[in-house]
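Collaborator request, handled under Task 6.
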Amino acid sequence: MATFVLVPGAWLGAWAWEDTAQALRERGHRALPVTLTGLGERSALATPEVGLDTHIDDITAFVVEQDLCEVTLVAHSYASVPVTVAAGRLGTRLERVVYLDSAPFSEGMCLLDVMPEDVVNRLRRQVAEHGDGWRLPLPPVDLLRMFSSLEGLDEGRLDLMRTRATPQPFRTFQQGPTRPGELGPEVDHVVVACNDAQALLDAGMPALAFLNQSPWRRFHLPTGHWPMLSIPAELAKTLDAVVSSGH
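Structure tokens returned to the collaborator:
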């Protein structure tokens, strides 16, 4: 049995993991979805001051306060940024880090740095016009698909996202990790790539080349960027394979 701490990406709360978490429990694992400050059922805590450090503290405190050990920490999308730092703080509590359609961020690099300039400009307009200058609502589908594949999401799943998504404190997109820390060889390094990321890795994209080398292990999910919504059972099956295959 493994202990999974499931950290959602931008605009999402623990709710996004419900189906995957249930499928993991049915396989005998402990599955603990997290909601970061200002999102999901914690949206009332959103303020202009909520930033990357807030979410790093959320993840670290979640593990420490529940006295979790041998943790498999799963980071979807945006969550890779705070998880990169939190993982380094967890020491011997951490057994494995799984970057789900994401990758670790280097010091000082923020989420906006990996997006095309025209996308960043449109997101900033969304914040200014619809987010009181500090919140980023879930972008409209035409903008969302410019940086996140929606493959596998039918209208029902898209409606669920639109209904349950909460605005992301924009400061979290503007800040990059400082002193992210190094993961030792005793920590299992895993990336689970969905279709677009898989294609980039197969093509040997220089910025991601390290993910094709030891100590990284790679798994593939044949879907778009939101596998916990598009293929939750298959995601659980893959996470089960990650822990059962060791490192």
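The cover message to the collaborator said: "The beta strands are 3-7, 30-33, 71-76, 94-100, 135-136, 168-169, 188-193, 216-220. Residues 3-244 form a domain with the Rossmann fold fold (CATH 3.40.50.1820). Please let us know whether this matches your experimental observations."
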